[in-house]
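In this section we walk through a basic example: taking a raw amino acid sequence and producing a predicted 3D structure, encoded as discrete structure tokens. The instruction is simple. Fold the sequence below.
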Amino acid sequence: MTPVSMSSGSDPVTAKLCRRASGRRPSLAAVSLVVTSTAAPRDILAARLRHLVEAGVLEKIPYSERPPRFEYRATEAGRELGDVLHLLRQWGDRHLADRPPVVVEHSCGADLEAVVVCRSCGQAAENGSSGIRFMVPGWSVTGATA
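The resulting token sequence is shown next.
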């Protein structure tokens, strides 16, 4: 399972960790907050954190030697994952909720909306306006063919 698929909702513990790590305060020094809010056993939480560190989404940084304690900070990849999670939250708010349980605000005070745009012309990517170009030999729409 990839970090992205794990954070897409198939694993609520990992999704919560990714959201916390890529948020306004991108650090998980107090993992007990995540344990409390997910009711996750510590061994499950430790396994997910270890997986996210190995995948390059989080980095583990010691902040106390006695007792040994660590905080987890989002890497560049982890911070980028926050954008993906924001898009997934927006989709869920539109299709799975009567009303959004939370609204993300921009620093100007307006509601923030994630939009996928063309890196060249800046136009929003809408259904039917994009296509796939395979950059690695042996790939097709069904995945790796070799």
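Looking at the output, two observations stand out. Confidence is low (pLDDT under 50) at residues 1-9. Residues 1 and 64 are 32 Å apart (CA to CA). In the next section we compare this with other chains.
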